[in-house]
Structures are given as structure tokens and as C-alpha cells.
Amino acid sequence: MRGLDGKLNGVRVHRLKDKYGTRGLPTAELELEDMRGTLIGNLGRGVPSIASILNITRIYSALGGITGLRRSLALAKEYAKKRVAFNKPLRDLPLHIVTLAELELTLRATTQLFFYEVQLLGRTECTALGVKGQEHDATMLRFVTPVVKAYSAKAAVHAIGEAMEALGGQVREVVLGAIWKHIYDGYMEDVGIARQLRDAQVNTIWEGTTNVLALDVLRVLRETKCGVLAVFKETVHQKLQPAAAHPTLHTAAAHVRTALDDIESYIYSIRHQEVMEAGARGLTFAVARALAGALLVEHAAWAAEAGEPGAEVDVAVAERWCAGGKLIEGLVVREPESIAQDVAMVYGSDAKL
């Protein structure tokens, strides 16, 4: 950025941008003119040279949403112990508990996805080429990175919004002993959830929007001629193996296996590129939910085997996450006629794709 004389190296700062969130991380509009640089790779190969960095930045974006959700949910759970409605604390109202439980499911699932991806990144970085398992991990990392980032970032925005709603939006004054205190509910800046929500939104944009990442998933399938799908299935089946020793997890594991079969059938049933692209987001989310289900089952089996405190809850989480057809919700084949209708609805009856 600066030369030996301390002056900016051909950089002109036009302005700092006024952003919706992440205000603690300034974003500037820069102009580069006569900047001096050093070539560190081959000409014309800049993007391939930095592609591995995308794994790290996309993982970081996924983490940003998850940590925002964790903070917001912690506030919502603590608030529910103190806020009284209908003559009861919120924590004693079944509907409120159901709402918080859904947020807890989302947090646990996305956390499992995140740390699995971190594990893959660590193994690929620390394992030499040609060593057994390295190619498998590298393939999974390439496939899973856009999946985890897209799903976790998107889910976090919705979940943080729910956590804000769980605190309400009214400023109240209460007497604690002989002292008046202000109690600030969720929509107010004082609590901090508003900032979490604003900051989480950018994670659906940075390092690839949800749609860009979904198309990247299709790119991996295309580049590997769907070979990555076999690697993914093998990995998920391995994650489910410990469930065999725990009857309480059999149903959840079966749901994940069914979801895998449905995902595979979906991919191989589509012959038109536009149809595949139209359903790319649904496919990406289905892959994420199925993988999260396998990881939750694996974790619950470990907890039960080790006699960990809360193992029964871990089993319940796995069962709840994998229940019914939730894993493949939104995995729908959008036929050309449906896509044409979408275009007409958005841009008018005469519009064409």
C-alpha cells in the first residue's frame, strides 16, 4: 500500500462507503494509478492462484453468521427467563419454547457444518499430495465450501431475525428494588441484536451470493462429471455408521439415507441446463441439510457411547433435524414451462428468458 517513503503507492481513496452493516470494518472506494507491484505468479493466472483463499474467506463468512446467531439466541434465552407474558415467564410458554428450539436446531446444525469444513481445510493443508485420503478430503472441501457458506449465512439471517422478534420491540421502565432501570427489547439498538442482524446480512453477499454459490455447486458437479456426488455419499454413509449401535438413531439415519437417494435421483433426472440452474439453490440447501443431519447423527452416537451429559438431547436434536421430508424441502424440479411463467410474472407476459 505504501512505498519506502511512506507515501501511498498509487492509491487514491475516494470515499468511505456508507454501509448497512459491518460498520466496524470500513469499506473504501479506491482508485489505483501507477501502482508498483511485484509479480508473484504467472500472468493471466491470478484467479486460479488465489482460489484456495476462497475456501478460507467463505468459511469465515459462514462463521460470521453462526456467531451472530449464537449471540442473539443467548440473549433471547436469557430474556425468556425474565420477561413475563400471560402471567408466566416466556420460558414457560410452549409456543415460545418451540420457537427457541427451532433456533437452537439451526445453531447446532450450522455449527456442525462449520467445524466439519474446518476439519477438511486443516487436513488438506497438512496432508501431502498423494497421501491416502488427501484427494478425498480435497474433493469434499471443494464441494462442501460453497454449500456450507450458502446455507449457514442464509439460515443465520432468518434465525437472528427470529431471535430479535423473541425479545419484542418496546422500551420499558421497571423498578428493581428502589432503582428505576430501562429494559430494552430486541428491536432497540441497546441490546445488540440489531447490529448482529445487519452484520449477518453481508455474509449472504461477501465471497459469493447464495445464487452464485449454488451455481458453483453445479460447476463442481459438472467438472467432476458428478464424481463428487459419489464421494459425498460415501462420506455421509461413513458418518451414519455409528448410529447402527443406537436404535434411537436408526430413524434419523434412515431419513438421511433417503435424502441422499432423493438428491442423487434429482440430479440425474434433469436433462436441461436451465432446469438444473433454476433449482440450484434448492439442491444446495438439500445437500447442506443432509450433511448436517449426518453430522448431528454422528455426534449424537458419540455422545451416547461416551455417556456424555446431555446425550439424550443430542439424540433428540438429530431426530428432530432429520424428521420427515425436511432434509429435501425445496428440492423441486422446475420444468421449462414453470421457468417461463416465472419470467412472465417478473417482467411481463411478453418477456422471454
Q: What percent of the residues sit in helical stretches (DSSP H or I)? A: 55-70%
**CATH homologous superfamily label of the largest domain:** Butyryl-CoA Dehydrogenase, subunit A, domain 3
Q: Write down the CATH class of the largest domain.
A: Mainly Alpha
Main sheet specs = 2 strands, antiparallel
Nearest-integer average pLDDT = 92
What is the number of independent domains?
Answer: 3
Helix-strand category: mainly alpha
CATH architecture of the largest domain: Up-down Bundle
Number of helices, counting only DSSP H or I runs of 4 residues or more? 11
Q: How much is the radius of gyration in Å?
A: 24 Å
Q: SSE string, helix = H, strand = E?
A: EEHEEHHEEHHHHHHHH
| Total number of beta strands | 6
The CATH topology name of the largest domain reads: Butyryl-CoA Dehydrogenase, subunit A, domain 3
The percentage of residues in β strands lies in 5-15%
Strand order of the largest sheet: 1-2
Poorly predicted runs of 5 or more residues: none
Instruction: Using the alpha-carbon principal axes, give the shape.
Output: globular
Distance between the termini: 44 Å
